[in-house]
Amino acid sequence: MKSLIDKRLFDLPGMKKYAAILGVLIFIQAVAIIAQARALSIAIVNLWNLQSINTIVVPAIVFTVAFMGRHLLTVVENRVLFPFVEKTSGDMREDLMAKIFRLGPAEIDKRGTGNIVTMALEGIDQVQTYLMLVIIKILDMSITPWLILLYVLFLRWEQAIFLFAIFPIIILFMIILGLAAQSKADRQYEGYQRLSNHFVDTLRGLPTLKQLGLSKRYADNVYEVSESYRKETMSTLRIALTSTFALDFFTTLSIAVVAVFLGFDLMDGKVLLLPALTILVLAPEYFLPIRNFANDYHATLNGKNAMSAVMDVLHEPEMTEREILPDLKWEKGSTLKLDQVSLTYPDTKVPTLKDISINIKGMQKIGIIGASGSGKSTLINLIGGFLSPDGKNQISINGHQLPHLNQANWQKNFLYIPQNPYLFHATLADNISFYVSAATSEEINNAAAKAGLSDWIKTLPDGLNTMIGEGARTVSGGQAQRIALARAFLDPSRKVLLFDEPTAHLDIETEASLKNDILPVFNDHLVFFATHRLHWIGEMDYVLVMDHGRLVEQGTPDELAQRNGDYVKLRSEMEAADL
Amino acid sequence: MKNLRKTFANDTWVMPYLRKYKGLLILVLFLGFMTFFSGGALMFNSGYLISEAARQPSSIIYIYVPVVLARAFGIARPVFRYIERLTSHNWVLRIVSDFRKKLYQTVESKASAIQRSHQTGDILSILADDIEHIENLYLRTVFPMVIGWLLYIFVVIGVGSLNLVVGLLMLLLLGVITIVMPLASVATNGVREFKQHQIQHEFYTNLTDEVLGLGDWLISGRYDDFINLQKKPIKEIAALRKQDHYFQWWRSFFVQFIVLLTTLVLLVWSAYQFTETKSLANWVAAFALAIFPAVSPFVNMSQGASEWPVYRRSIERVNALDSGDKQPVKQTTLNEPFNELSIDNLTFKYADGDRDVVKNISMDIHPGEKIALLGPSGTGKSTFLKLVVGDLTPSDGQVLVNNQNILNLQDVRSSLFGILDQQPYLFDTTVMNNVRLGNVDATDQQVKDAIAAVDLKDLIESLPDKYDTQVQEAGKRFSGGERQRLSLARILLQDAPIIILDEPTVSLDPITEKKLLDKVFELLHDKTIIWVTHHLAGITHVDQVRFMEHGQFDMQGTPQELYKTQARFRQLYDLDRGKA
């Protein structure tokens, strides 16, 4: 039971004030419930005594007022709480997005795009539902039954004691069965995830099954897995539902027992009909809050889990000290220095980068080569400030010591062009001018022309105003690279270019023609170019050779060729034969 | 109503299963009815019991029956409810198994063996969600509604048989809760739900877009734009949701108002009907107390109904899947070994396309020949491959294997073609199971031999679980090159005469690529190979290179010839080797 209530719930700003207001409202509501029961009983007893219909007019009016008051209070409680819940969950969503912005792409890699989007959308919605449900239900459960009990005690203490005694028994049974069901339900949930994954897994692998001639036969496998899951589910469901059954059984039977004992007491003349009837009418009301609470168990559980997931992200450590670097314009004389920099990903032990030292000055063209997994991309991400190094103050720009490169003033200086540049769902023009929102259409046109996009744009129905990106016109890998390139042409103030294998998955003809358009942008820029396509090395004036996270060689291509070390070895492994 | 008819006009997903599991369905409805009946009966009986007891009858015998009944109903209610819930879940899960199979078969009939990416994963997840929605349709809408209506009929007939006028009043009052309010909810909520869905969709797209492009947002420093982009949909959704909540709260209030009227009607009626004699008056309490438990199932009917629009979308989506089934083509088998693959004047245009993607391609391929196919993306290479294996039907021309049309050989296709593509799929199971998919009758030893042939024996045997190692989701456990090798092992087991290589090295680094290609051509030296590739690494392995441009071949010959005679080929080859 306790597990449903997140401690952090009470730390929410404004929570105590709203809890107090709601507490008062629920108290009044409980009084209305008692009044309603009393009035109804009076009316019935009057009729039972064969009194005239006039005698029930007043009780009927009291009943009507109490009944409608009670349900009106439910609306009032919700309306009082809703703005608070809305604000709390809305703030939480904004905090979450702001946090994600600060955590950057590394966080997205860690948690997955789908996960983050779902958390911000459905997750926050579930938190909202959770807050709406749980606050009122908890207060209801901690006020209403006790007030009713007090009144029953005043009417007849024997029944009050019985009702009081049954309450902990119900809770005890729910806990015992709930615990048993919980551990099984957890496993069950895993099983469910497994099945659901299995199904999507099978659907996604359909082309492969088709290739292997198994796709038709696999339909039965899908059915069998689902059926075995059903049997598994039913066996756990039996236990899970037993917990609800126990609650149901005890509350319903308690009412029956109360009725029977009241019946015997009435026969013996120990009690009058009016108090007996009132107790009987109140008995279901006494159990109602706990039943309501149990009924929404699953909705609240989802909400609670969603809330802790959001809280976890909000409490993640982020890179601070983003403003250490003073205003910077990368120029011919600027320097970037890495001194023995290592980098270890959070959940691994072995560092992905180890003791990297480089000195960069002005507008160099730096090629980064190495086999897959040698740390090329990690190095580019470190330079882009998306990842933080292990040690402090091993990096400096123009002599300013920096804890990491996630510096606002450094990020103003570079452009990052990955293997698959992301295209936003927007017009082509907006995509090109993403970094320079004030660009005129003429400037955009010029940049597009320099990036070799003109011919393609002519074939588009709306030219530069054509929508591209997810759900709109698809753009080939080569064109995507050109759009990213156009961004660089459009923004001459960004003097540093980070390329991460930009042509790796392009066909050779596209690559050849793209190369012609990329080369001019190298002029007057500091370029980092991670690649394993050898022909680019010819365009570089400095090469870093990476192997298993270490920088094993660095120098100009000519120097390295003469040294006959790792660089030469790597080239020979990659090169194809003469024809 | 028109919508409802439209949704179910060509329905193959909901109604057929209702018919198929009729027996269980009726049982569920009966149990649900009995649950509420027992709940009402308990209070009814208790009311009578204490009223009678209060008369202080001379003998306990007068209240004996009500005492027994009180206990009986007290036990019956939870028991019925328990069984009802078990049965209904069982019923729904049974249907889910059928659904999954059906969805699988529907997707299967449209899937192609030639596929460049697995981006469809998202769409498939949506479909999987749809199935869950239909599951909830039964549990949250259909069952409670039908049970509610049964109870409604029972109450109206029961009261009506005692007094026709009061029966009619019940028909009207309870009809408002059980019929009018749910319909009104569907109508108001339907519009809102639709709007909300649209905004939600927009929000989802925006947010995914932002998260995917987070690196660009970060570097551009456009923090305010980033935050502001979501503000509008958030606000709109919040406004709609607020309306929705307010509607629900006031609707519940109104339902309670009707409950109040019902109670008052019954009270006044009892005042006239049951105040003739003392023993009749005992029924007053019975009727008055039974009202609240009896109407409790009605209270939530509107909520169940208002969820209908969500379910309808799912039903329509899965039903839309069924349309456009292909006509089955008569299938035959090949009795002799493969001796010729003949591509005859092949032309293809997509139904919604404006130009031929493949134009008049002809070529003959004989056992053991190795052909490389090059060309920029979008020139029709993968369409060509789909035509070759028979996943697409040509607009003109044909593909023949030993003079049999490939379209007639689909049932035996896997004994003709082995396919290694960009991202061969590894299923979330063990290494052993994954490789064995190549030939499900292979022995453990044969599987191990195939793994050894692709040089993965040492790696796999060094893992703690060896051949029983789980490959994890989409084969994450292994690197790109290792995944390709596992798939190659599959193809070795499959042992088909023609192998199609569909850019298998596109995501690999040059060293891994070179090693993989050497291995592929070494192991498959006696096979016929059609290799679509995006660059020229390893091109010396083939006898023939063909360049494809705009659906046609424009340059062809042995690699050596092309290098000598074609300047373009020479330039590309040198570039690829890093010599340019």
Summarize the SSE layout with pairings.
The complex is a heterodimer of chains A (579) and B (580).
Chain A: H1 15-48, H2 57-103, H3 105-111, H4 113-155, H5 157-204, H6 206-211, H7 218-267, H8 273-295, H9 297-314, E1 335-343, E2 353-361, E3 365-369, H10 376-383, E4 395-397, E5 400-402, H11 408-411, E6 414-417, E7 426-427, H12 428-432, H13 441-450, H14 454-459, E8 467-468, H15 477-490, E9 496-500, H16 508-522, E10 526-530, E11 542-547, E12 550-555, H17 557-563, H18 566-574
Parallel strand pairs in A: 3-10, 3-11, 6-9, 9-10
Antiparallel strand pairs in A: 1-2, 1-4, 4-5, 7-8, 11-12
Helix pairs in contact in A: 1-2, 1-4, 1-8, 2-4, 4-5, 4-8, 4-9, 5-7, 7-8, 13-15, 15-16
Chain B: H1 2-9, H2 15-20, H3 22-54, H4 61-110, H5 121-162, H6 164-212, H7 214-220, H8 223-273, H9 278-299, H10 301-306, H11 308-322, E1 341-348, E2 358-365, E3 370-374, H12 381-389, E4 396-401, E5 404-405, E6 417-420, H13 431-436, H14 444-453, H15 457-462, H16 480-494, E7 498-502, H17 510-523, E8 528-532, E9 544-549, E10 552-557, H18 559-565, H19 567-576
Parallel strand pairs in B: 3-8, 3-9, 6-7, 7-8
Antiparallel strand pairs in B: 1-2, 1-4, 4-5, 9-10
